[in-house]
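Example complex used in Figure S2.
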Amino acid sequence: MTSKNFYNKPVGVIGAGSFGSAIANILAKNTEVMLYARNPQITKDLSETGLLHGVVMHPRISLTNDLQQVVEQCDVLFPIVPSENFPGLVDDLSPYLKPYHFLIHGTKGLNVSKKDWKKDESIKIDKEDVYTMSRLIRERTLAVRIGCLAGPNLAKELADNQPAATVVASHFDEVITEGQRLLRNDRFQVYGSKDLLGIELTGVLKNIIAIAAGALSGMGYGDNARSLLISRGMIEMIYLGQMLGANTQAFLGLAGIGDLIATCSSKLSRNFTVGERLGKGEKLPDILASMEETAEGINTIKIIIRLMKGYQLRAPITESLDKVISGEMTIEEALRFLMKSPLTSILILCELSSSL
Amino acid sequence: MKKLKRNPQVIDTSKTYPPILSDDEVWPVVKLAKNRKEFMERVIEESFQRLKSIRPNISSLIEELELTRYREKLRYKTTPWKVDPDDEVFFWNGVKSRLLELNGAEKATKQQMADQILRDIISRYVHEITGNFKPSHYRLARRIIKFGFARLLNAARIKKFGSFWSGDLTLQDKIQITGETDQVRKLAKIGTVVIVPTHFSNLDSILIGWVIHTLGLPPFIYGAGLNLFNMEIFAYFMNSLGAYKVDRRKKNLIYLESLRTYSSMALRDGCHSLFFPGGTRSRSGKIETRLKLGLLGTAVEAQRINYEKNEEGRHNKIFIVPVVTNYNFVLEAPALIRSYLEQKGQERYYVDGDRYEKSGRILKFLVEFFTKGNNISVSVGRGLDLLGNYVDDEGMSLDKQGNRINTKDYFLYRGIITANVQREEEYTRMLSEVIVKEYHRINRVQASHLVAFTAFQMIRAKHRNLDLYSLLRLPVDEVEIEYSEFRKAFSRLRNRVIELFNKGKIDMATHMTDDIDSVISLGIANVGMYHSHRPLIKGKKGNIETRDINNLYYYHNRMDGYDLEKFL
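Predicted assembly (924 residues):
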């Protein structure tokens, strides 16, 4: 291996949201970082105030609006943008990517390949139509050395340099090792996993449960209720994960149960916050309008619900949340529904998913 | 019938391909044969180094040697073959006593002794693996195949004794080559080609050998089962056609590493190679969906080493070319499907015996194959690089948007080429997935395949309550499909095939778009046509019947994996 002195290309972070900039800050402890922001305003803000999302940025981070420059100057890229914008980003990246690029994404959402599925209820969604971000990269670009980043990593706590850990998952050992080399420091531990799909899905699905936990909290309920939800929610996540082709193991680790506990307990989580405000009686459109960044859980719920329709499966927590956000049910009704038959409904799901 | 958006390739059987290298002195395989000794020495040395790095310390090496000796003893006691050398017992007993001696030796001499034993075992294996290619034999064997088969063909077709010696029909009329034939010729000039065909019949290796020759390509080397060398006739042809020997009984690390090194090194020396990545013949009649990764992996490795060496003026790129053989009739079908069902059904343990072990049977097989069974088509796929990207005619890899990319970049880490076993394993797996996809894409549907599929699926739908094994036990006289029903179902499936064809997801023969009744008749006449129990026949009342539902299942499986059953 060439030593750092001979090979000091910067590492690229694509997406200057709160998580993207937090990761950039962690990376900057070990290496030069290029942070790409789509919006020129962000660059301006940073140069004027030195802050991004209220956080001081490491001096080794250079901000740019030129995507081509980032891809050409960096061998390792961390795309961290909302899942909604991910396909567009991938298409923009594609012409500049080379086979030597490593891509480790940090986006906890899903994508549906069929256009207009949101507008047209009659469009059927199949498992094959649901894309994780790594699959999107793999199928639309020439990049093969792909990984993802997941774990209990609340951006604010990372920014405060509190102790934390994350998981880098990839089919390639070298991607995991590279992720560890770049991210690890005495306050930040990095674990590796070969189960890319499992780690991606656990990060995605936990957002649903986080919204539910927020709702319980917003309604003023305490830790008994939360624990009930987390454990039931975990089971629902596992079966949904199995339906999408993942193994159980990832759900039991840091990126699974670890992340689930963090996001289900913390007001720093966007998804939790959405749930909490729902629990207090606010309407979803109002909540979303007042939020700065995307709560991936909302989109994930919609995708899962549509997917389940085709397979005639039941996922009680996800379904109840869907009815709440679409206004078909009040949050109290949803809770009453869940308390009535949580076990049997989940059993239906179990049986069906094991027969898949 | 659905509209065609593109036309199936019409085969021009009169097209001839001049040899791409006229002077056989420059064939890589000839160079390899000339420097056979030196080549073997290199293989032995590299295998030795590899094994030393896998078993770096003395105790693990001794353990490996002990294990190998034990397994080898088990092998020659339980499954001895005629082709095994006479000194087998003598050699391994020698290893045994040397290992005993070694255990009592001084520490310093221990390593030396163990290394020497390892080297001797590798050397024995490499000598066994190495083929004995002779250009003169190659030419002769080729002529025998070409001449002999063409004569048989004419005799069978024209059925007049006199016409036996006429040249009316050539093999090329019978074996039709479609697909990217021009590209493979170009690629063979600018790099090393690895042909990876599907494997349905024992005849595949000869068939592909003939195709390679017909396309004007220099001879390819390929691994042939050592068991085939039990038969003198086959042994002669195999040796002449550039085969090296693979013994599937030997599964020990030392043997496998020697074999891998042999293949990898031959590729690096520019020898075009032929792998059957499915491993064995498809028992079920399905196109391979899972490939063996061992030999494919040697190609990935050879490519990386070529890039590392980066010798000026050398063609160092390796191209993968998938090939699909389309038969209407596979002579071994009944035995293959029986063994598949026995294995799957776990009714009893299946012992893999080859029905055609004896030369006489093989000859009979060849005669039947080439006189009976109508046309065979062989589809040549588009060239791929080691990552499964398509390459253009100049051998440049293309990304999904069709831009040229550099395959070398896939082996870079922090700007330099690095050897990374795990990465290469992953690349091999990815490549195998692409090859499987390509098989399904270039599979050329014949009427016979689709009639078998339609009929079996209709029977299955009619007996939905039966599982597969009960279904296959149905008495054949209870299975009768009314022609008008069959015609409707066939038409629906044909439409689906045309849709897939329009999208480029499958290939099909030109006859598929003929008038529906004639397509069905052609299909029924051809499917498994020379089995004593025909998979499909038209009954007295004009309805569709079967005489052997297992055979029908076998031919039906050919169209598995396209989700056609949804369109029944």
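The mean pLDDT of chain A is 90. The longest helix of chain A spans residues 196-218.
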